[in-house]
Amino acid sequence: MSNLVPVFYEHLSKMEEKQLACGVILAACKTLTKESMELIKQDLGTRSGDGSEIALHYAYDKNKQLFGILLEGQKLSNTHFYALRVKDYLQEHKLLAGSLLIASFPESSRSSGQMLMRMIQEMREPGAHGEIKIYEQNPAQKEEPASILLVNHDETVNEFLSIYFQRKGYLVTVANDGMDGMEKYQAVAPDLVITDLNLPILNGYQLMEKIKHISASMSKIMVLTDKRLEEDVQKSFAMGASDYITKPFSPVELEARVKRLI
Amino acid sequence: MRDFLLYYGVFAVYYVIAINSLYFIIMLFSFKSIMGILKSSIYSRFQTLSGSEHVPPISILVPAYNEELTIIENVRSLLSLNYPRYEVLVVNDGSKDATLQVMINEFSMVYSEHMPVQPLLHTSKIRGVYHNPAFPNLYLIDKENGGKADSLNAGINLSHYPLIASIDADSLLEKDALIRIAKVYMENPDETVAIGGDIRIANGCKIEDGVVKDIRLPDKFLPMMQSVEYLKAFLGGRIGWSAINGLIIVSGAFGVFRKDYIIKVGGYREGYPGEDMNIIIKLHKYMLENKLPYRVAFCPDAVCWTQAPDTLKILGSQRRRWGRGNLKNMIEYGRHMAFRPKYKLFGMLTLPFNILFETLNPYFRITGLLALIGYTMLDMTNGYVLLIYGLLNVLYGMLLGIGSLLLEEIAFRRYPRFRDIVKMLFYTILMFFGYRQIGVIWRFLGHIEYLRNNNSWGTMTRTSWQTKGSENISSLEARS
């Protein structure tokens, strides 16, 4: 039995050239002998369940104890469907050793090679027994979501904004007072800090001062406050704030300003 | 003899009817104005106001004597109020503990040589003013011991803003208390000379970082009693008095004043307790003598949480101090102003009411009770008079107490749980079996103290400050 990676890699590159879809199922298996591989091939067949013409390729990697199936021309939904059958079969024959991971080119990734490598990497840390995981593009590969630290004494505002920004795809951390804000800042090193000026223990100015002290250029600071006095605006900008928004605020405007900053 | 006792007893019965009826009328005024107050605060946008340019700046004065345990938390809480422009002036009144040092350490304050202290009011010697540019709105004044009034005067001398707020160092303001009180001021800035806030008992509440997080009724007996007592005094009494501009006291724990008028009346009185009532009497006197339109307002939704004494000893000393202060004020000012048409409603109603029903209350009640007991001893067949006296006291008092609870439930509902309402009701009734009576006795003892110590107020002050210090220790225990 040939090694899984080169075989699949070859197939996948061919499919990529032809611009065809291709599903991949990887399963953590107990050691398979050649005979049992043949048996699987026979039992599962070379056609997918609905009877349409699909070429299926099987492979097994002894070292990694990975069992793989390649489904030519199959999208993720069909691959998922087929994976359920594979899982049942493997469980029935007590061959399954961990989780399954499925993906489909080009839905899951634009580069089939990269997809395969990542899948195999991910299988090194198998999930729960019998779980079918769907391959997701590694977050590291995507643009990393910007992180925001919200420092506000008003819990309602914090809750509202954290839900709002999370839905917009930001990583949000929340702090209720200046001291808490300082600690969270050191823990998460966010891209942007949105702070009120009026905070218990450490006020907004002191928080800005300390942030500047720790990392002069790392984070942008935005002030979101009730205070509309000129001197507060002036002082905030002087202390390095990038923007100053007064309550009551429009979340749409706030997000637009946040986007501009990070 | 028998007849005399009976007549006196009957007189005492009428006295009780009169006092309670007057309280009842005052409470009706409270009911009348509460809806207006409620609507005005519902339709006000305090959050927007709290950042507005148009809100007048306020200087908060915090007299501190031996407050090393609680001062940091209180100052922190004061520094995070929702208010656009204000300053906090902590006045260390020659504390014997490390109040000064903990302030200096915590806020990295440095001695500043060129702090302009205007000599508007006479005070004890100022040792120095401390400031830290990182906390631009915090000042620390260190002065030699001179009492609470003296500290307030020193704070006024340094303050930079036209309004001053006086706050006890063992009390906590709600974040929007100042903006709510400022709104009342802004409704009529020309005529408003003083505004009182609502004082509530913080025992039992959960306090974190100087903010009341969870509002609960006290668990202990004495603080619980004071809790309903304060509700009654502030909601049932002061709202009504303020409605007819006859308020005689703005609590020292939290009040806002026009600085210019405080200075015109010569500042706070030095040397002994009762300075909070004294300043209001002087303001009334000044405004009326100069025929200026004015009002002394009360803002029931501006809440200040204070730690109530939870032992009989400390509560007794507090009440004796109140009795002393009240008597002193009545002898010095009340006597000369009562029943003079010149002083209008204040002279014709507030002061006579205060003298007859507050200051002299213990004498009439105690002697009335003794007379009736004596009479009943002599003539058991007419014992029902004693019964009437007792029932009248209790039932009328309960009516007033329940009326105040009703005000609370209509307007504020700070204690929303049903069992809290039941608990308050229970204590309102319980108040008339022992607690009220001992209060009357404390006031009487206060008067005796006043007469005995007439010439030695200085030492007297020190003892009262000391009890205040121990109050704070107990309040810290309650918090931790």
Largest interface: A-B, 19 and 19 residues
CATH class of chain B: Alpha Beta
CATH architecture of the largest domain in chain A: 2-Layer Sandwich
Structural class of chain B: alpha/beta
Largest sheet of chain A, if any? 5 strands, mixed
Query: Can you summarize the main beta sheet of chain B?
Result: 10 strands, mixed
Query: What sort of overall outline of chain A do the alpha carbons produce when their principal axes are compared?
Result: elongated
Cα distance, first to last residue of chain B? 58 Å
Q: In percent, how much strand structure appears in the residues of chain A?
A: 15-25%
Modified residues (4-aspartylphosphate) (chain A): 196
InterPro entries (chain A): Bact_response_regulator (IPR050595), CheY-like_superfamily (IPR011006), Sig_transdc_resp-reg_receiver (IPR001789)
Protein name (chain A): Response regulator
Pfam family, one (chain A): Response_reg
Describe the structure.
The complex is a heterodimer of chains A (262) and B (480). Chain A is 42% helix and 22% strand. Chain A has 262 residues and is an alpha/beta fold. In chain A, strand 4, helix 4 and strand 5 form a beta-alpha-beta unit. Chain B has 480 residues and is an alpha/beta fold. Chain B has a single domain (1-480), classed as Alpha-Beta Complex (Spore Coat Polysaccharide Biosynthesis Protein SpsA, Chain A). Chain B contains 16 helices and twelve strands. Chain A binds chain B through residues 153, 177, 198-201, 203, 205-206, 209, 225-230, 246-248, and chain B through 47-48, 50-53, 76-77, 79-82, 84-85, 134, 175, 209-211.
Concise account of the structure shown:
Chain A is of the alpha/beta class and 262 residues long. Chain A contains nine helices and ten strands.
Please name the defining characteristics of this protein:
heterodimer; A: 262 residues; alpha/beta; Alpha-Beta Plaits; Rossmann fold; 2 domains; five-stranded mixed beta sheet; five-stranded parallel beta sheet; 9 helices; 10 strands; elongated; B: 480 residues; Spore Coat Polysaccharide Biosynthesis Protein SpsA, Chain A; ten-stranded mixed beta sheet; two-stranded antiparallel ribbon; transmembrane helix (chain B); transmembrane (chain B); Glycosyltransferase family 2 protein (chain B); Nucleotide-diphossugar_trans (chain B)
